[in-house]
Amino acid sequence: MRYYSLNQQAPTVDFRAATIAGQAPDGGLYFPEHIPQFSPELLANLKNMTRADLAFEVIQPYVGDAIPADVLRRICAETVDFEFPLVPVTGQISALELFHGPTLAFKDVGARFMSRCLGYFSQQQTAPVTVLVATSGDTGGAVADGFLGVPGVEVVILYPSGKVSPLQELQLTTLGQNITALEVRGNFDDCQRLVKQAFLDPQVLAHRQLTSANSINVARWLPQQFYYCYALQQWAHDTVPVVAVPSGNFGNICAGLMAHASGLPIGHFVAACNANSAVADYLRTGTFAARPAVVTLSNAMDVGNPSNFGRILELFEQQHAAVSRLVSGAVVSDTETTATIGRVHQQTGYLLDPHGAVAFRALEDYLTEHPEAHGIFLETAHPVKFPEVVEPVIGAEVPVPVAVRGLLSRTKQSVLLEPEYAALQEFLLR
Ligand SMILES: *Cc1c(COP(=O)(O)O)cnc(C)c1O
Fold first, then answer.
1. How far, CA to CA in Å, does 139 sit from each of 39, 262, 267?
2. What is the pLDDT of residue 5?
3. Which residue has the higher pLDDT, 158 or 307?
4. 76 against 151, higher pLDDT
5. Residue 414: exposure state from Cβ atoms within 10 A (0-12, 13-18, ≥19)
6. Residue 12, SS3?
7. How many whole angstroms from 127 Cα to the centroid of ligand 1?
8. Does the annotation mark 107 as catalytic?
């Protein structure tokens, strides 16, 4: 498989080069030259396959000969060695729970897959790779966990001081080894600005091979197709599902749309947004306008100018009519988010996190208009990561799952950084 830049000003590359570079040299996102098609046998056999085998079949055409089949099989098996249960919440709505990975975030899958690919590639080159990433919370923990101990890879995570939840901060700052957490005295936008500047700094680039680990990287973006396949494996209705995806940078839903383009039977997608509604507005009106991000309760979706929107347009050949036939946008306010958490908990006993609540509410509204359909929403994080939102609504504490209880006794280690580029540059040039 070859990948081209959406800016059209850079040569095509293979999966290896696309993964190592992250972004094309012309600043564009990489996109595959063709969309592989699932074979009729694969679709007929979906329910009998193991998660690891299914992951391998889905991703192999995208990787091509950049990784030998036996190595790729092992990478797939390690990436998805936890559950992705489809849990009925109401008669019409089920949750696909994506939070059973080591950091309780759906980003674990992409981070685990990418880290193992990069680990394999770095065995064949002498220069170590530095993964530089800014996080508003969930990305950093998933990346830190995924890359921990990978030889030849150093990870530098920037996070805004005091603006991630206590559990998220422990996930970022307690691992040590090849992971360094830079605690920036500023907000998430400062972190992102510093990272972007580093990627353009010739002095830093001469000193280190830098790559990014957010969903612009194909190795983090493409494995998210697995979720949709696992949803279909567990789907028991006769009709094809409507899938609602809580969206920020639109990497997750864009991966779902890729799986659909490969032949996965999904009837409709709902792009569920919080007040950051640029893409939802585009779906409704045909006009796209990026805006500064606004802060909401579902903070992992606070993105004003989603990077993967360009990939969605490319997939549909820039045709608004084609995108909007398959994908509806929905905008859910903070008030509706907390009301949904409370109501669903009271009526069904199911506890949503703020991001899942946005998707649940958007799906509910869609199904009101389509009463014959059944739907799935992606529950992208465990509610325990957002106690300050969830606990007042339900009037009770959310028990910390066993998987992360050990974190609570560990000690934070971070390097404080002023929100000025000179400070990051000095760190990276050391
Ligand atoms: C990152 C994140 C999202 C948004 O996913 P995108 O791929 O950026 O659209 C939604 N929910 C949670 C919990 C996240 O961490």
1. 33, 27, 29
2. 97
3. 158
4. 76
5. middle
6. coil
7. 32
8. yes
CA distance 214 to 249: 9
- Whole-angstrom distance, CA of residue 305 vs CA of residue 248: 9
Closest ligand 1 atom, residue 247 Cα: 9
CA atoms within 13 A on the CB side of 426: 10
320 phi and psi angles, rounded to 5 deg = -60, -40
73-102: b (≥16 Cβ within 10 Å) or e: bbbbeebbeeebebeebeebbbbbbbbebb
Locate tokens 């921990």: which residue?
148
Domains belonging to the chain, first-starting first, are: 83-105+221-400 (3.40.50.1100)
Per the listing, tokens 């679709």 go with 43
Catalytic residue among 47, 107, 196, 412: 107
Q: For 36, how many CA atoms within 13 A lie in the half-sphere containing its CB? A: 17
Mutation test of ligand 1: which of 220, 225, 301 has the most ligand atoms closer than 8 Å to its C-beta? 301
Residues making up the chain, counted from first to last:
430
Report whether 380 contacts 246 (CB < 8 A): yes
Give the Cα separation of 289 and 399 in Å (integer): 41
Name residues contacting ligand 1 (CB within 6 A): 105, 107, 138, 215, 246-252, 300-301, 355, 380-381
Q: How far apart are the first and last CA of the chain?
A: 37
Query: Token match 């055409």: residue?
Result: 61
Angle at 46 between CA 120 and CA 58, to 5 degrees: 30
User: What is the Å distance from ligand 1's center to 354 Cα?
Assistant: 11
Helices (H), 208-302: 218-221, 225-233, 251-261, 278-285
Ligand 1 centroid to Cα of residue 380, in Å, is 7
pLDDT, tens digit (0-9, with 9 covering 90-100), for 178-230: 999 999 999 888 898 899 899 889 999 999 999 988 888 999 999 999 999 99
- Residue 95: the pLDDT is 98
